[in-house]
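Long-time lurker. I teach an intro course on protein structure, and each term I like to show students one example going from raw sequence to a predicted 3D structure in token notation. This year I'd like something fresh instead of my usual example. Would anyone be willing to generate the tokens for the chain below so I can use it in lecture? Attribution to the forum is fine with me.
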Amino acid sequence: MLLDVRDLTVYYESVLALDNVFLTVGDGEIVVMIGPNGAGKSTALKAICGLVKPKSGEILFQGENINGKQPYQLVKRGLCLVPEGRRVFSSMTVLENLEMGAYTRNDKKIFRDVDKVFNLFQVLKERQKQRAGTLSSGEQQMLAIGRALMLKPKLLLLDEPSLGLSPNYVNTVFEKIKEINKDGTTILIVEQNARMALEYADRGYVFEISKIAFEDKAENLLKDDKVRKAFLGGI
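-- Reply from a regular --
Happy to contribute to a lecture. Here you go:
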């Protein structure tokens, strides 16, 4: 397993956010976490990235316990988060945002990887000299993902990548996520659009408040009556 989360418990002051959570992500997978708002999905991502300190449990990345590591240390190890809300550098150009994404690197392949991002997201190539703050929401999401790819992550964490996007951009973003995965990047996603996420994923975890209710292959979750009634609008 590339990522192995064991018995993870997280509190926000006295409020229990995660209660003895177990989850894994295998090398090469797309894994999604779905469930209601406030169930703990984003907290799990933040704990994995070192942004939240667990009360107890283990987080193993490539077999090493990374509890207590700082976010910048985890980025250097190949673990990168695209946060909810995109958070691009709005006053910088598209190209400058991508260059900022490579801030931990000092190799000679940075501009080759810029070209790879532009090949993946053609619209960014067309707007490379445009300020990021003037892009549409969908274009900003592509830029946020592209900036993260400049770090050459082994595990890419995406928090609500379709939030606030038009239906056309939702489809485009998930198609690009699939392409990124096929190119060798393992991906863990938190997503409110449960049906779309499961259609593109290998496996999924269904959260209830602070806990994982159940997990299975994505195709099985799409067919599960409880999941369909609760999250997919099915009967």
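Some talking points for your students: The mean pLDDT is 94. Residues 3-87+157-232 form a domain with the Rossmann fold fold (CATH 3.40.50.300).
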